[in-house]
C-alpha cells in the first residue's frame, strides 16, 4: 500500500473479479475467505490509507495518494461481495435444512468470514473513516484554475483588439474572438460602458479598453483572494466562467482510470500550451508569458487535486455499497456477526462526523453555487452516506429503548432540513441537485417515522425538550415542503413529510397559517387528478389528516373538495369483482375510495357545530347518493359468509384486507353521521334503506358468530381470510402481540390469516402471516402477532359503528311510536336478534375480564386502555339494543342466559374496579344491566 499501490490495485482487481464470479470460483476463494490473516491484511490496508492521508496542502499530494484510495475502494467492494455471498450461502443452507427436518438440529447460524474487519470497524476507526472519506477534497485550486483561465482570456482579448495575434493557433484565436464578441454585447458590459461615459470618457475603443483593463485587474484580485463584490463585474466573471474552453468534456473526466494520463484529467495542459504557442512568444511579450505560465501551473495543480478528490469520492461510493450490504446482513438471522455487528455508539459517532462533513461542503457551495458543479457528486455521496447510516441506526434501535438517540436524530433532521432549504433555491439552475434533495426528503421522512413510532421517546421527562425543538424545526420546514409538494419528482416525499408533521407534536394553530400562505391546495388537487395512483394516495392521506381539524376542514371545504372527490372517484375501476377480492389488482382503487370516504366523514365530524354544517351535509348526501349501490354491494361482500342462502359464497373463501376493513369503517362512520338526516330513506331509496340495514345486521352476526372460549380457532369460520399484504403489515406480523388476549377476535384473527383454500396471494405474504406455536405442544395453537391484534381491533371498531348506527335507527323508530302513540311493526326497522347480540357481549366480557385480571392493579398501556374503552362502549350499546328489541318485539330472555351473563359480567366488574379511570364505564354498565335484567340488581347479584 505504501510502496507500490499500483501493483496492489492490480491484485485487488483480480480478487474482486473472483468474488464477482461468486459460486463459480467458490472453491478457489475458500482458502482466502477462511483466512483470518487475509482479512486482517485488508483491514491494515484501510488503516494505512487513513494514516498517510495528506494534509490540506496540495504540494503534499502525489499520484500514490489517489491510487491508495482506489485500493481502499476495491477492498470495500470485496468486503461487500463477501458479505452478500455469505448471506446467500447461509440462506440456501437454511432452506435446505427446512426441507430436511432430520438435519434441523444440526443447523445453526454461520460465523461471518470478515468478522476481523467488522470488529475493527466497531471503534473510533469507523468515525475516522467516515470523516476522511466524506470530507471535501475539492479545494479552491479548481476554482482558481477556472479564474486563471478567465484572466488569460481577458488578456488575449485585449491583445487581439490591437491586432496582435501572437503565436495563437487559428482555431484558438477564433474561439477568443467569439468570446470577445459575446462579452462586448453582454448587458453588464454595456451597463459599465454607460457608467464610464458619464465620467467624461469618450470613444468606443477607449471605453472598451478601460472596462477590459479594470475587469482584468479585478479578476487578478479574485485569483489572489480578493473577491469581486456583486455587480456588473461579478456578472462578467460568471459569464466567462461558463465558457470552459480549456476544460475537458465532463464525461471524459469521469472515466474509470487510475493513471494521471499526462496531466489530462481536467485540463489538457500540454494541448493548451501548444494552442497558446507559449514557446514561440518573444521576450518582449513577457507579461503574456507570465499570465499563461501561471495559468498552466495552477491547472496542473488543479488536475492533481481533482484526480485525488475523485479517487476519494470513488472510495466513498464503494464504502456506501459496503454499508448498504451490511444493512441487509444485520437483518439476516442466519448470519452471525461478531457482537451483533457495528455498535450503536460507533454508528452515532459516524453520523456526527458525516453531518459535519456534509455541512462543511454545503457551506463551501454558497459562494459559487452556480458554477461549482464539481461538488454535486460529492454532495450526493454525502447525503447517501447520511441516509445509510441513519437506516443502520434505526435498525439497531428497532426493538430497544431509543431515548438516548434523540440528539443524533434531531441532528440528522436539522442537517437535512437546512440543506434542503438551500438546495431547493439552487435547483432551477442546478438540476443535478434533484437527487440529493429527494434523498434528503427520504432521510427526513424516515427520521419522523422513527421518532413518532417509539413510545419511550414520547415519554421523555419534561426537562428534555426534544419534541419542542422538533416542533420548531418542523414549522421552519413547512414552507419549503409546500414548495416541493408542487414538484412532480418530490411531491410524494414532501407531502408524506407534511402529513407526519401535522400528525406530530406541532399544534394546528402553528401550521395552519403556514399552509394557508404557502400550500397551493388547488394546484395540488389539479396535479393529483393528473398524477399516478401512488402520489394520489399520499395526497389523500394528507388531506385526511388536514380534514381532522376544524380549520383544516374549512380549508378543504373552501377548495370544493367534494367536486374533486367526485371527479377522482369516478375515474376508479370499482366493480363487484374487485369488491369480492380485496387482494386483486384493484386494491389501490379500494384504498383510494376508502380515503375519499374518510375525508368526507372527517369534514362532517369537524364541522358539526359550524355554520356551514348544513352545506356540508347536503354535499355529503349528494356525494354518497351516487355510491349507495356500491356501498351496499361492498358491505354485502364483507358479510357474504353469513348469507346461508348463497351457496357460492359458502363454497369460496372470502378474501379481505386491513384496507378493505378500514373502508368498511369509513362507510359506517358516514352512515352514522347521516342517519339523523334519514339517509338513504329520504332520498327516494326506501328499499335500499331496508336492504342496507339487513346487510349491516348480517355483518354484525358474522362478527358475533362463534364460540368464545372453546373450539378450534384455526377451523373457526374457515371461509374468512385476511393476510398481511403490504410491507408495513408484514413487518407488524413480525412483532409480538401487545394486548395478549386469547378470546374473541383476538383468537380468531390469528387463524383468519391462514389460507386453507386456493387463494392467490404471494408466497412471502402467506408464509409471513401464518405461524403455529409448536412450543406449546398444541398443533392448533396459532401464534398471535401485532398484526392479528390490529385486525381484531379493526373488526371491533366496525362492530361498535354497526351498533351505533342500529341504535340511531331504533331511537328514531321509538320516537315515532311515541308521537303516534302506537308501535307500527310494519314500518319498524330491522334490528338484530338477541342471540347475535349475546355473541358479541360474551366476546367483550371475556376479553376485558382477561386483560384486567392479567394486569391486576397496574396501569394499562395506552393502546390496551383504548381497546378496553372501545369494547366496553360496544358492550353498553349492545345491551341498550337488546333492551329495545326485547321490549319492542316482546322477546323473552333465552333460557339460562341470565345466569351465564350474570356470572361473566360480575367477574368483569370485579376486575375493573381496581382501575379508577374506568368507574364511569362501571356505573353506566350497571345502570343498563339493571334495566335489562331487573332481578340482578334487586338480588345484589352484581355486587
UniProtKB/TrEMBL annotation:
Keywords: Signal. It comes from the Eukaryota. Residues 1-17 form the signal peptide. GO terms for molecular function: structural constituent of nuclear pore. PANTHER family: NUCLEOPORIN NUP188 (PTHR31431:SF1), NUCLEOPORIN NUP188 HOMOLOG (PTHR31431). This is Uncharacterized protein. It comes from Zea mays.
Amino acid at each position: 500500500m505504501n510502496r507500490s499501490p499500483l501493483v496492489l490495485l492490480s491484485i485487488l482487481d483480480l480478487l474482486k473479479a473472483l468474488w464477482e464470479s461468486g459460486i463459480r470460483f467458490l472453491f478457489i476463494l475458500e482458502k482466502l475467505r477462511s483466512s483470518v490473516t487475509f482479512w486482517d491484511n485488508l483491514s491494515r490496508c484501510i488503516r494505512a490509507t487513513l494514516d498517510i492521508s495528506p494534509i490540506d496542502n496540495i504540494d503534499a499530494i502525489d499520484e500514490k495518494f489517489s491510487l491508495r484510495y482506489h485500493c481502499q475502494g476495491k477492498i470495500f467492494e470485496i468486503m461487500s461481495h463477501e458479505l452478500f455471498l455469505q448471506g446467500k450461502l447461509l440462506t440456501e443452507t437454511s432452506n435446505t435444512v427446512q426441507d430436511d427436518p432430520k438435519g434441523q438440529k444440526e443447523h445453526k447460524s454461520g460465523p461471518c468470514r470478515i468478522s476481523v474487519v467488522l470488529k475493527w470497524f466497531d471503534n473510533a476507526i469507523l468515525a475516522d473513516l467516515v470523516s476522511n472519506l466524506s470530507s471535501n477534497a475539492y479545494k479552491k485550486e479548481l476554482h482558481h484554475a477556472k479564474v486563471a483561465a478567465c484572466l488569460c482570456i481577458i488578456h488575449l482579448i485585449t491583445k487581439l483588439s490591437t491586432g496582435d495575434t501572437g503565436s495563437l493557433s487559428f482555431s484558438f484565436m477564433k474561439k477568443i474572438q467569439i468570446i470577445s464578441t459575446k462579452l462586448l454585447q453582454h448587458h453588464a458590459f454595456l451597463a459599465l460602458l454607460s457608467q464610464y461615459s458619464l465620467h467624461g470618457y469618450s470613444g468606443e475603443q477607449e471605453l472598451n479598453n478601460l472596462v477590459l483593463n479594470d475587469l482584468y485587474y479585478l479578476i487578478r484580485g479574485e485569483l489572489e483572494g480578493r473577491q469581486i463584490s456583486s455587480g456588473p463585474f461579478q456578472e462578467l466573471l460568471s459569464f466567462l466562467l461558463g465558457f470552459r474552453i480549456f476544460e475537458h468534456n465532463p464525461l471524459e473526466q469521469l472515466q474509470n482510470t487510475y493513471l494521471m494520463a499526462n496531466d489530462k484529467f481536467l485540463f489538457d495542459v500540454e494541448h493548451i500550451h501548444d494552442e497558446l504557442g507559449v514557446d514561440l512568444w518573444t521576450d518582449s511579450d513577457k507579461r503574456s508569458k507570465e499570465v499563461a505560465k501561471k495559468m498552466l501551473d495552477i491547472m496542473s495543480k488543479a488536475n492533481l487535486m481533482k484526480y485525488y478528490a475523485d479517487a476519494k469520492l470513488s472510495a466513498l461510493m464503494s464504502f456506501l455499497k459496503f454499508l448498504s450490504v451490511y444493512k441487509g446482513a444485520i437483518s439476516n438471522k442466519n448470519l452471525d456477526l461478531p457482537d451483533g455487528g457495528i455498535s450503536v455508539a460507533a454508528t452515532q459517532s459516524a453520523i456526527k462526523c458525516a453531518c459535519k462533513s456534509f455541512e462543511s461542503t454545503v457551506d463551501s457551495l454558497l459562494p459559487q453555487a452556480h458554477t461549482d458543479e464539481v461538488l454535486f457528486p460529492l454532495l450526493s455521496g454525502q447525503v447517501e452516506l447520511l441516509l445509510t447510516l441513519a437506516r443502520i441506526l434505526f435498525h439497531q434501535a428497532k426493538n430497544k429503548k431509543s431515548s438516548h438517540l434523540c440528539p443524533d436524530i434531531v441532528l440528522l433532521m436539522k442537517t437535512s432540513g437546512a440543506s434542503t432549504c438551500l438546495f431547493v433555491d439552487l435547483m432551477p439552475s442546478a438540476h443535478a441537485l434533484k437527487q440529493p434533495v429527494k434523498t434528503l426528503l427520504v432521510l427526513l421522512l424516515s427520521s419522523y417515522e422513527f421518532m413518532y413510532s417509539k413510545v419511550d421517546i414520547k415519554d421523555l421527562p419534561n426537562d428534555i425538550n426534544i419534541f419542542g425543538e422538533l416542533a420548531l424545526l418542523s414549522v421552519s420546514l413547512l414552507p419549503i415542503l409546500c414548495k416541493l409538494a408542487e414538484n412532480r419528482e418530490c411531491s410524494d416525499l414532501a407531502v408524506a413529510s407534511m402529513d407526519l408533521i401535522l400528525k406530530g407534536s406541532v399544534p394546528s394553530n402553528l401550521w395552519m397559517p403556514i399552509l394557508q400562505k404557502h400550500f397551493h391546495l388547488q394546484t395540488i388537487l389539479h396535479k393529483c387528478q393528473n398524477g399516478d395512483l401512488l402520489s394520489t394516495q399520499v395526497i389523500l392521506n394528507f388531506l385526511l389528516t388536514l380534514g381532522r381539524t376544524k380549520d383544516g376542514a374549512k380549508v378543504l371545504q373552501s377548495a370544493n373538495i367534494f367536486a374533486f372527490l367526485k371527479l377522482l372517484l369516478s375515474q376508479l375501476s370499482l366493480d363487484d369483482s374487485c369488491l369480492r377480492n380485496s387482494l386483486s389488482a384493484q386494491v389501490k382503487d379500494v384504498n383510494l375510495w376508502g380515503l375519499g370516504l374518510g375525508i368526507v366523514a372527517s369534514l362532517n365530524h369537524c364541522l358539526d357545530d359550524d355554520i356551514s354544517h348544513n352545506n356540508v351535509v347536503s354535499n355529503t348526501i349528494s356525494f354518497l347518493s351516487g355510491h349507495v349501490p356500491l356501498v351496499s354491494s361492498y358491505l354485502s361482500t364483507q358479510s357474504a359468509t353469513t348469507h346461508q342462502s348463497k351457496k357460492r359464497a359458502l363454497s369460496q373463501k372470502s378474501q379481505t384486507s386491513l384496507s378493505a376493513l378500514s373502508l368498511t369503517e369509513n362507510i359506517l362512520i358516514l352512515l352514522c353521521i347521516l342517519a339523523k338526516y334519514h339517509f338513504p330513506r329520504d332520498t327516494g331509496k326506501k328499499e335500499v334503506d331496508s336492504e342496507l340495514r339487513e346487510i349491516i345486521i348480517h355483518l354484525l352476526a358474522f362478527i358475533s358468530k362463534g364460540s368464545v372460549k372453546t373450539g378450534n380457532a384455526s377451523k373457526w369460520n374457515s371461509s374468512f381470510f385476511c393476510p398481511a399484504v403490504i410491507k408495513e403489515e408484514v413487518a407488524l406480523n413480525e412483532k409480538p402481540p401487545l394486548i395478549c388476549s386469547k378470546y374473541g377476535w383476538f383468537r380468531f384473527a390469528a387463524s383468519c390469516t391462514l389460507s386453507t383454500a386456493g387463494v392467490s396471494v404471494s408466497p412471502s405474504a402467506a408464509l409471513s402471516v401464518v405461524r403455529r406455536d409448536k412450543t406449546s405442544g398444541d398443533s392448533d395453537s396459532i401464534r398471535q402477532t401485532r398484526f392479528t391484534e390490529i385486525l381484531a381491533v379493526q373488526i371491533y371498531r366496525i362492530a361498535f359503528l354497526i351498533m351505533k348506527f342500529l341504535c340511531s335507527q331504533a331511537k328514531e323508530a321509538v320516537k315515532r311510536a311515541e308521537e303516534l302513540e302506537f308501535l307500527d311493526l310494519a314500518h319498524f326497522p330491522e334490528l338484530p336478534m338477541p342471540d347475535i347480540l349475546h355473541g358479541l357481549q360474551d366476546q367483550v366480557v371475556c376479553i376485558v375480564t382477561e386483560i384486567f385480571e392479567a394486569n391486576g392493579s397496574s396501569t394499562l398501556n395506552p393502546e390496551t386502555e383504548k381497546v378496553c374503552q372501545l369494547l366496553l362502549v360496544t358492550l353498553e350499546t349492545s345491551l341498550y339494543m337488546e333492551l329495545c328489541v326485547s321490549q319492542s318485539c316482546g322477546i323473552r330472555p333465552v333460557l339460562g342466559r341470565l345466569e351465564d351473563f350474570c356470572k361473566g359480567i360480575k367477574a368483569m366488574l370485579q376486575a375493573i374496579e381496581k382501575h379508577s379511570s374506568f368507574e364511569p364505564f362501571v356505573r353506566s354498565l350497571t345502570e343498563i344491566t339493571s334495566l335489562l335484567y331487573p332481578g340482578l340488581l334487586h338480588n345484589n347479584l352484581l355486587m
